[in-house]
Amino acid sequence: MTHTISADGLRKRYGDVRAVDGVSFEVPEGEFFGILGPNGAGKTTLLEIVEGLREADEGAVTVLGEAPWPRNPRLLPRIGVQLQASSFFERLTAREQLRTFGSLYGVPAAKADAMLETVGLNDKADVRVEKLSGGQAQRLSIACALVHDPELVFLDEPTAALDPQARRNLWDVLRAINTEGRTIVLTTHYMDEAELLCDRVAIMDAGRILRLGPPAALVRDLDAPARISVASGVLAAAEAGALPGADEVADDGVSLVISTRAPSEVVAAMAARDALDGVQIRGATLEDVFLDLTGREYRA
């Protein structure tokens, strides 16, 4: 299998802080790879090392078969980078902005204009960048990262601060980019986003990768109980607690929730009592895996 990225034993220190502490991973060609972690986990530093923006203290990394550091001009046309906070040239329209970025790589104006359609900004081509909405600006930022047709794309929290509609619209764009064969490396704080988009994710904390694998596999390995909920009053809490397979019961006056590792038994028992009106069954998610590995305390 061809690996687009291969990292081995990467370390980066700032004084006593180990921002990246012995990280190793590989990203195959065409994969949608996610890097997750709380604030200060080392995600951005790791990406900067892989992108060739920062030198590692120890370890080795290759990107598309090349060493990214010292800054490697052969890699620049082959990678695209969308930063968490993007700055555009002032007073330019979306079309002019994209053509300017494309000109840095010798991309013809017509090809640059075509990228507007790819990210759904055709109708905003003549709008100045400062007049774009947050979601539109993020899509333009991604278009700038893609305008030279890179093989590998780095996306640093591309949907941060977007409303739900804008996020889902951008997800469609990212799926289409990946379907075209590009390798994508994504950092995000949204677990549902990573679970939906990524083939594999690496969960980082304190500069280390704690777990790596397909989201569904990580969720299964957690072996967390299922949660079955119905409206309060459908079943008494005491009766729910006596059902075969029920482990814990909570009733907040709106919903009665049964935690269980034998959901089929509980549901069958509820069906026998005609207590399935409005039933919802929720298993573990990637967010549960994330919290189990990194803890639940708030980090600024």
TrEMBL record:
Domain of life: Bacteria
Membrane topology type: Peripheral membrane protein
PROSITE patterns recorded: ABC_TRANSPORTER_1 (PS00211), ABC_TRANSPORTER_2 (PS50893)
One function term, GO molecular function aspect: ATP binding
Protein's UniProt keywords contain ATP-binding: yes
Record key words, sorted: Antibiotic resistance, ATP-binding, Nucleotide-binding, Transport
Domain ABC transporter, first and last residues per copy: 5-231
Pfam family name, one: ABC_tran
Locations listed in the record: Cell membrane
Similarity remark: Belongs to the ABC transporter superfamily.
Protein name: ABC transporter ATP-binding protein
Organism: Actinomadura vinacea
